[in-house]
């Protein structure tokens, strides 16, 4: 059973456009929702994260929107640049899982074309 | 920011041999480390949780005798792939947490293992 569903699987955006990646979850015990960016051959890097007590968090060009009632959260990349081309993973942490075990979505490959 | 160093970044070994991968937290003490496996174009699959000074907890379906994990200090965890076979070829990634539930999870740069 996939606990975090991520879409789309791949995304092509023009330079300067907005990239939007969506995730949905079912486990109401999730209490932390990070997004990771991964370049080929590299490990994931934490991009931005949100907790369910806020509906939006913005850091530079990256914004997370969180809808607790719908159990959905999304990543928006404003003014997308070719350097943003990477695979993005949403994740969620179960408050009862102990320490910091994350459940990952399947990833979205973003390509930003000039 | 917190840095997790993983070594080697890539390794090629012959079938039947063992390979050790190191994961170090460079500027913080990691009471917990996680080992993931990632197949091409797929998500990260948690293999095991490594706690300093205690036995690792393996996820269902992961052979603990094949993937030996040692977390002997607060800054080092190792994953040894024993008697490697071609199907063990994959990208292995470690991550580390300082322990508090609000601590971010930091990832190493991964190790590409190719078993010939």
List keywords for this structure.
heterodimer, A: 114 residues, mainly beta, Immunoglobulin-like, 11 strands, 57% strand, globular, B: 116 residues, seven-stranded mixed sheet, four-stranded antiparallel sheet, 0% helix
Order of helices and strands of chain A: EEEEEEEEEEE
Task: Tell me the CATH topology of chain A.
Answer: Immunoglobulin-like
Q: Largest protein interface?
A: A-B, 22 and 26 residues
Q: Which superfamily, in CATH terms, is the homologous superfamily of chain A?
A: Immunoglobulins
| Structural domain tally of chain A | 1
- Terminal CA distance of chain A: 38 Å
N- to C-terminal separation of chain B? 37 Å
Regions with little confidence, pLDDT below 50 for 5+ residues of chain A: none
Instruction: Specify the oligomeric state.
Output: heterodimer
Overall residue-averaged pLDDT value of chain B: 91
Describe this structure in words.
The complex is a heterodimer of chains A (114) and B (116). Chain A has one domain: Immunoglobulins (Immunoglobulin-like, Sandwich), CATH 2.60.40. Chain A is built from no helices and eleven strands. Chain A has strands at residues 4-7, 10-14, 19-25, 30-38, 45-50, 56-59, 62-67, 72-77, 86-94, 102-104, 108-113. In chain A, strands 2, 4, 5, 9, 10 and 11 form a six-stranded mixed beta sheet that branches. Chain B has strands spanning 4-7, 10-13, 19-25, 32-38, 44-51, 57-58, 67-73, 76-81, 90-97, 106-107, 111-115. Classes of the chains: A mainly beta (114), B mainly beta (116). Chain A binds chain B through residues 32, 34, 36, 41-46, 49, 89, 93, 95, 99-102, 104-107, 109, and chain B through 4, 6, 31-32, 34, 41-44, 46, 49, 93, 95, 97, 99, 101-110, 112.
